[in-house]
Amino acid sequence: MASFRVKGGNHLKGEIIPQGAKNEALQILCAVLLTPEEVTIHKIPNIRDVNKLIELLGDMGVKVTKLGPESYSFKADQVNLDYLETEDFLKKASALRGSVMILGPLLARFGTGKLSKPGGDKIGRRRMDTHFFGFQKLGAKFHYDSKNEIFHIDGNNLKGCYMLLDEASVTGTANIVMAAVMAEGKTTIYNAACEPYLQQLCDMLNRMGAKITGVGSNLLHIDGVKKLGGTEHKMLPDMIEIGSFIGLAAMTQSEITIKDAQVHRLGIIPETFRRMGIKLEIKGDDIYIPAQKHYEIETFIDGSILTVADAIWPGFTPDLLSIVLVTATQAKGTVLVHQKMFESRLFFVDKLIDMGAQIILCDPHRATVIGLDRKYPLKGIRMTSPDIRAGVSLLIAALSANGTSIIDNIEQIDRGYQYIDERLNALGAEIERIA
Ligand SMILES: CC(=O)N[C@H]1[C@@H](OP(=O)(O)OP(=O)(O)OC[C@H]2O[C@@H](n3ccc(=O)[nH]c3=O)[C@H](O)[C@@H]2O)O[C@H](CO)[C@@H](O)[C@@H]1O
Ligand SMILES: C=C(OP(=O)(O)O)C(=O)O
């Protein structure tokens, strides 16, 4: 278990380029299984989850060629389905959440799929009903072996249909879309998730020959095609990393320019940080955050306390709520952070409270943060990173704190943030990776 030793109090300065989007990469990589032709992908982040998925694809027989630091080509012309029967496959696939999205492509192309319970953050119940509900609607048979926690699906000759999803699940929608693109006839998916990750996936599938309309909305129409071909794809900058850098800049009084942020794809993320009082200037496609001694959280128009809550896209992503929460600890004012989707994602606030933050955890979904307006800086402590976004929030807290902090279990952070220590040290941070 590796750790970060973080010296707090430095003001950072400079430019940072966001990595390719982690959650998009996980979808896009699974889609290479849909064609025997070559698929070239650019801006692939060098992070644990993505590397594990690439390794898994290689183990399944996909030919993987590294073309450059962030570019790979994939050719799934000889997928070894027997590998799916091995312990090794089940173990590797269960190490990350994104692996669940190999099921849709496997079902579409080979009529069968198998997976052990996928991993990912332990942030509450993470049900997969929507995925299997969609597969079943297309005509697949689904069986869950609860003893061994293995999901089996089988179904040749999938047939297009109308379906209304029980929730707008992100990975669920991606999985169902990938299963449906080669089903016979028309599929309509209502209450589909429509995050930029999914827009990117659908655009890529269309370039491969799929016929998907409604991209970017919650109503997708898919005309099944017989086969898909190769393509080239470039990942968007990671919007969660961009939000994390905005929070980091505010907390540490840093002057940071986030380069090539594709601002028009960020939805209400910039506006949400503005409501936290943080000054942002959009310069072309860059986001410039000046050094700010003070920032004041807005109230609602009637003067009542601001709530920042997650919602399905185009609402505010749940993956940035931990960052909003930590950023509020040094703002002036009060905010209620309401994490509606996950029930165990706010417990990390006990570490921030130990550092001196004023937070009331109202219940597992809601925390009220009373900003200290930098009157009482946080103090460095030893802490463990419970999940990826809490981990980065603790890193931001540690960088702003008086004294030195140790953050354990940084594998969680490495799951989603590429060379985070080196990139922040280049801006003036002092983060040391210790064994
Ligand atoms: C690999 C990947 O892409 N992971 C992301 C993906 O996870 P993932 O696709 O696993 O998350 P889902 O979208 O399925 O659901 C997330 C949670 O929200 C709940 N839910 C979902 C939809 C809805 O309309 N109502 C509702 O309450 C679900 O029950 C679940 O508890 O999307 C989540 C929600 O943006 C993100 O936090 C994860 O980072
Ligand atoms: C929860 C997240 O990831 P995963 O779904 O991979 O656990 C996340 O990216 O914030």
From TrEMBL:
Residues annotated to bind UDP-N-acetyl-alpha-D-glucosamine: 97, 319, 341
CDD domains assigned to the protein according to its UniProt record, in alphabetical order: UdpNAET
The residues forming a coiled coil are none
Q: Which top EC class is given?
A: transferase
- Chain positions recorded as phosphoenolpyruvate binding sites: 22-23
Q: Which residues form the active site?
A: 121 (proton donor)
* Record EC number: 2.5.1.7
Please give the pathway this protein is involved in: Cell wall biogenesis; peptidoglycan biosynthesis
Concerning its family, UniProt says: Belongs to the EPSP synthase family. MurA subfamily.
Listed name of the protein: UDP-N-acetylglucosamine 1-carboxyvinyltransferase
Give the source species. Answer: Algoriphagus pacificus
